[in-house]
């Protein structure tokens, strides 16, 4: 696939073979089998050209890489943690590429949902709203006015 992606044009088994043979010894039938397997898996399409086939990549290397990353991320039980770990592994050049990519796709991304309203800080026990009452009833920092009466009544019946 690397050769097909690099050339970005239809290639024959013979072309791939000759290129690979510059680096190592490899048989024509091996390259032909690999190209056929790639075709069967849907990675390349082929067209007859005389007695041979010309193979063309179905997608770009970038699209393939993106699909791999998306698949790995989708398998995570904690996608946010996976992204944090992934970003932590990035080199400065990769972080710069990420920044560039966000700048490019940013205008096309859907708008982020509105942030959730902030949850108010927990109130002291005496400041919470009582059924039908207000939180500011009673003395500052103390229980609401009717809380003492309820306590007195419960003490009288042994609770």
Please give a handful of descriptors for the protein shown.
2 strands; 48% helix; 159 residues; mainly alpha; disordered C terminus; 8% strand
Number of strands: 2
The gyration radius over C-alpha positions equals 34 Å
Helices and strands: which structural class?
mainly alpha
What's the total helix number?
Answer: 7
Q: Give the helix proportion (percent range).
A: 40-55%
- How far is it from the N-terminal to the C-terminal residue, by CA? 80 Å
Name the poorly predicted regions: 127-159
User: Spatial order of the strands in the main sheet?
Assistant: 1-2
Topology:
Blueprint: H1 2-7, H2 13-20, H3 28-40, E1 44-49, E2 52-57, H4 61-75, H5 79-89, H6 92-105, H7 147-156
Antiparallel strand pairs: 1-2
Helix pairs in contact: 2-3
Walk me through the structure.
- With 159 residues, this protein is mostly helical.
- The chain is 48% helix and 8% strand.
- The chain is built from 7 helices and 2 strands.
- The chain has helices spanning 2-7, 13-20, 28-40, 61-75, 79-89, 92-105, 147-156; strands spanning 44-49, 52-57.
- A two-stranded antiparallel ribbon has the order 1-2.
- β1 (44-49) and β2 (52-57) form a beta hairpin.
- α2 (13-20) packs across α3 (28-40).
- It is elongated and about 70 Å long.
- The N and C termini lie far apart (80 Å).
- Mean pLDDT is 79; it is low at 127-159.
């Amino acid at each position: 696939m690397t050769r097909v992606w690099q050339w970005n044009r239809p290639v024959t088994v013979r072309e791939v073979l000759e290129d690979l043979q510059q680096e190592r010894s490899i048989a024509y039938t091996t390259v032909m089998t690999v190209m056929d397997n790639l075709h069967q898996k849907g990675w390349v399409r082929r067209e007859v050209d005389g007695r041979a086939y010309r193979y063309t990549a179905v997608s770009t290397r970038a699209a393939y890489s993106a699909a791999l990353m998306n698949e790995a991320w989708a398998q995570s039980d904690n996608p946010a943690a996976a992204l944090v770990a992934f970003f932590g592994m990035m080199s400065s050049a990769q972080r710069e590429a990420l920044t560039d990519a966000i700048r490019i796709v940013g205008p096309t991304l859907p708008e982020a949902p509105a942030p959730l309203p902030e949850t108010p800080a927990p109130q002291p026990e005496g400041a919470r709203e009582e059924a039908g009452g207000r939180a500011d009833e009673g003395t500052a920092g103390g229980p609401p006015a009717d809380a003492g009466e309820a306590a007195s009544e419960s003490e009288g019946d042994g609770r």
